[in-house]
Amino acid sequence: MSSGVAVSDQCYEFYEDLKLRKKYKYIIFKLSDDNKEIIVEKTAAADTEYDEFLAALPQDEPRYAVYDFEYEKPGEGKRNKITFFAWVPDTSKVRQKMLYASSKEALRRNLVGIAVEVQGTDSSEVDYDAVLDKISR
Q: Is the model's pLDDT at 1 over the cut of 50?
């Protein structure tokens, strides 16, 4: 199901900067005020911690995000996996939930190199340990 929402070229440019140039640790995307386009809402420097990323996600509004997740694999050293987040809190308005659900693929399918996708409806689903568990499988 597609909502007909467009994706701003800036979304892809920022994603390439995160993926290839390691310029950002994360990017948060949102629907524009008129709900016609997915745009970049926020980025963070490459040295940003995961807790800061979680704090940047609104409690009552959906967002999409990409996070360059770094973790330690025992005996193999540090690893990075680019992770796509579909953050749709249970407390969001129904219309917002529907719009974000139907618009996700427009953005997601064009972000080449995503290793893992995480769907979060509350903080426990995007908690560091929950995401680490999903990534390290």
A: no
Three-state SS at 36: coil
Question: Exposed (0-12), middle (13-18) or buried (19+): which is 95, by Cβ within 10 Å?
Answer: exposed
Query: Taking the model in full, what pTM does it have?
Result: 0.94
- Residues with Cβ < 8 Å from 97, sequence gap 6 or more? 62, 88
Report how far residue 26's alpha carbon sits from residue 34's, in angstroms, rounded to the nearest whole number.
24
Closest by alpha carbon to 103, among 20, 10, 1, 15? Answer: 1
pLDDT digits (tens, 9 = 90+) for 8-34: 999 999 999 999 999 999 999 999 999
Report the distance separating Cα 99 and Cα 16, nearest Å: 25
